[in-house]
Amino acid sequence: MSKTEQPVKQLIDVQHLATALQRFADDRDWQQFHSPKNLLLALTGETGELCEIFQWMSEADAMDAAKRPETAQAVKDELADVLMYLVRLSTVLGVDLNEAVTSKLALNGQKYPVDKAKSTSKKYDQL
User: Fold this and answer.
1) Among 14, 44, 87, 97, fewest CB within 10 Å belongs to which?
2) Is the pTM here over 0.85, yes or no?
3) CB distance 19 to 91 below 8 Å
4) What is the DSSP string of 63-78?
């Protein structure tokens, strides 16, 4: 590595989860069903289930949804489902999520510089 090259920071590490999910699928012979399309549809379904929990909540209730007894477990379960399908999809596609997140975060930093984006919800092309 040259002096100008920076090592990719480890922002996230999903390798243990990816391995566990691979084993889970292998044990059930589900690899045959884990096409990118099918995983994406499952991810979308789980995201919809997470959205359903928050549907019609006030902003204040939504902020506390993971702490409220009537919604906390459902929020945790659906977040876990979303994460697991996302990690499984990235594995099947061969995408390194740490590299993707690190790269995208840097790109977003360029698109949304602090001096222009602070305290505004404008999209980058409107800053």
Assistant:
1) 44
2) yes
3) no
4) HTTTTSTTTHHHHHHH
Kindly give, in sequence order, each residue whose CB lies less than 8 Å from that of residue 116, ignoring residues fewer than 6 positions away: 127
Per-residue pLDDT tens digits of the chain, which is 127 residues long:
555 566 667 999 999 999 999 999 999 999 999 999 999 999 999 999 999 999 999 999 999 999 999 999 999 999 999 999 999 999 999 999 999 999 999 999 999 999 999 999 999 899 9
| Residue at token pair 């800053």 | 127
Domain spans of the chain?
A: 15-101
- Nearest CA to 21 out of 71, 83, 107, 94 is that of 83
Look at the domain 15-101 and name its fold.
Helix Hairpins (1.10.287)
